[in-house]
Please model this.
Amino acid sequence: MAKYKIAWMPGDGVGNDVMEAARIVLDRMKLDAEYVPCDIGWDFWCKEGNALPDRTVKALKETTCGLFGAITSKPQSEAKEELAPELKDKGLVYFSPIVKLRQMFNLHTNMRPCKSYPGNPLNYRGTRIANPSGEDIAIDQVVFRENTEGMYGGVEFFPLPEPVYTALCANPKMKPWKDKAGLENIALSTRIVSTQGCTNICKQAFEFAKKTGRKRVTLIEKPNVLRETGGLMMRCFKDVAKSYPDIRADDANIDAICMWMFKNPQDYSVLVAENMFGDIVSDLCAGLVGGLGFAPSANLGDNYAVFEPTHGSAPKYAGQYKVNPIAMLLTAKLMLDWLKENDMATRLESAIARVIAEGKVRTYDMGGKDSTLDVAKAIADYAS
Ligand code: IPM
Ligand code: MG
Model:
């Protein structure tokens, strides 16, 4: 029997292309695993009315962890149109299967490292004034994104049910909407956070910093406007920080940090944020190190984890083997870390770094003409 059982979820679009790349590398490295193919994604929404079929949830429960490619998400109205005709009138509601997976398996922590690898032509080079020589600025950031709460909780209404409207109207701040809109014209998305959720994500961030010798943890929030949810997160952050006196703990508003990270990206190390702000800032971090082709992520729970590149399904490139597999391969590296296959993880990351530095095999985003699988094979040659 294989040492690990890994749920294999290519999902949509280029998810298939990059997962094939991952498989080439994992097989060449001889990871002792059985891969269990699992249905997930847009096709299953269209055909079955469920992007995350029950059989997939069941299969996942019998695996060590999951590896995931990419997912196509569309707004509610488009989702309804693409449903099979016999499912159209059933009142089915589309939800993102990856968001659902995170919640269902309580994968509370989304860890998203963004690192500039020397020689990557897409690395951030700073402004002319800051860096007249045009050298790479070394960036090594890790975002800890709360993964189950906040604006991703899915507690949303349109139109507003009467009891919700009445309850909200007890607050005098509702007056402008009461006067001009009325319940049938109001849409509501909630941002629900808990002391437990906030404390946990902050602890994960500080523990990681301590373990890896990082000296700074920065909270990203907006407590000057989001007074209650932002305020709670801020208090939890400060409380947790007290147990880590050797680590500098500071905070910044989401808008300000977008400016500061663009200006001085090398100053930041570990970043911690609520779900939505973590989503936003992790794309910014990816942009600083070459784009989504270089951004891996790990959805971590207490006993289970799902690993996925931060990028989407890029439908226009699906099946063309054009996209960069490096985000997916760095994701496989995070999975090897989690499995405590430390030697393999190190070998894989070194092989990725070497292929980037040599610059001989590159996908189009890096200025090359090679395919997804060519890059995977080049990395597999060094990693195996
Ligand atoms: C991400 C993605 C997802 C998210 C989408 C596809 C639902 O943007 O993983 O960052 O918003 O979490
Ligand atoms: Mg995102």
Summary: The chain has a mean pLDDT of 96. The two ends are 22 Å apart (CA to CA). Residues 156-189 form one domain. DSSP finds 14 helices and twelve strands in the chain.
